[in-house]
Amino acid sequence: MMEAPRVDSSCEDQAGPAHPGTFLASQYGKSDHAQARVGVDFPVFVVLPAGGSGERTGLQTPKQFCLLLGRPLISYTIEAFERVSWIRSIVVVVAKENTDLMAAIVGRFRHAKVRVVAGGSTRHRSIWNGVMALSEVGEEEAEGGEDNKVVIIHDAVRPFVDEDLLYRVTVAAREHGASGAIRPLVSTVIATTSEGFLDHSLERAKYRASEMPQAFMYNVIQRAYKKCTEADFDFGTECLHLVLRYCGTNAKLIEGPPTLWKITYKRDLAAAESVIKDTVSRRACMITGRCSHARMLADSLHKAFCKRETELDMIPDVKGDNVKYLLKAWTFIQLSMNDSDLDEEVETTFAALEATNQTLLHPVVVVVVHLSTMDRWAAEPTAFAKLASGAKLRNILLYGVNLQQSKIPFSRPTGECLVATAQTTT
Predict the structure, then answer these.
(1) Phi first, then psi: what are they for 418, rounded to 5°?
(2) How far apart are the C-alpha atoms of 248 and 271, rounded to whole Å?
(3) Which of 312, 315, 310 is nearest to 278 (CA)?
(4) pLDDT digits (tens, 9 = 90+) for 368-404
(5) What is the 3-state secondary structure (H, E, C) of 135-199?
(6) Is the pLDDT of residue 291 over 70?
């Protein structure tokens, strides 16, 4: 008889749905454990099965392609993995008729780590196609071949996964061959008789709900799928069971946070959008330009934002690959020191935002922070107000903050400091 799966109960037992703040704290205000880790020393890849038809949502569009704030759900899931520096690449497996659509999403939202693969007629056949696609990675990516790499399998409609959990299931898979996330059962599971009466119920404390992500040593999951029967491919649902049955690999189970819920029904899409809106409100992008003073201010703001569990991306401009940052935030802070170029700088940002179609969906907020000195003031407030009025017609809310710097000597012989007074124009 095989040994019963082991349960890691290091996480607090929290049944029920997660409050949006839980996602924010876990993904954007990373835990101390996540901050201490710099990654892993072996190659890690991801397979995202996304071939479902979404029948249970009652919508014509498969739920992985439904738009949340103008962005397909699957794009949020991909971003959660792309943000993890130690993940090499992501294989997204979609129905054959959706490969062009998925490729367009990858291009539109500039997902750099993604490869699109056509799926099969069932979930397991699609996952197997994704696993096989990983055997084609180059030697420079594999770093030791199939015996050295780990593959994470995750549902495309579970966008709220954080790096800390990914790290734990990956390391556990490396050590034990397989691992998977679990959650406490919310409802009691009962068995019925053929006549429709209660037969018996399970003791809920002894059982767990199997969730995603799951992680495997590549040679383990590959060997298990090679031994699968047609019945396994057609009716099987659990990858952890396959590796236990065909490889004797007993998965290490990791209790995950409440944010692992799967978007299954139409109401789940509304809940997911609420979480994403709350997340967006805590995320901003700062455009620093090429001025050293602006970059110094940006560094100070970045430290202040991080203390408040708010994420702040910093880019020098909105050109080239930096355009991808415009697709991930709704609030932008633009630093400026040159009065004569202010209109041009703002227009460049506006044009870039409009090209991403962000402004067509919801108002985008742009805050222009102008650095001025005693002998060089910012543009007249009336001129900026006119600029803001024009921005409203483009569905952009423009705000201006003028920081006036003055030098005041310290009482101690430590030099001089800069004191800023702010004037705000909307």
Answers:
(1) -105, 125
(2) 39
(3) 310
(4) 988 776 555 555 677 788 889 999 999 999 998 887 7
(5) CCCCHHHHCCCCCCCEEEECCCCCCCCCHHHHHHHHHHHHHHCEEEEEEECCCCCEEECCCCCEE
(6) yes
The pairing of beta strand 150-153 with beta strand 416-425: unpaired
Phi then psi for residue 73, to 5 deg, are -55, -45
Distances (CA, A) of 191 to 207, 261, 289: 14, 24, 64
Q: How far apart are CA 75 and CA 157, in angstroms?
A: 10
Q: Which residue bears the tokens 């789940």?
A: 268
Angle between helices 73-82 and 99-108 (to 10 degrees): 60
What pLDDT, on the 0 to 100 scale, is given for residue 56?
Answer: 57
Backbone Cα Rg of the chain: 25
Structure confidence by residue, pLDDT tens digits, 307-340: 666 788 889 999 888 988 888 888 999 988 766 6
Crossing angle (nearest 10°) for helices 266-280 and 73-82: 50
Q: What is the pLDDT of residues 212-230, one digit of tens each?
A: 999 999 999 999 999 999 9
- The DSSP bridge partners found for residue 327 are none
CA distance 32 to 393: 44
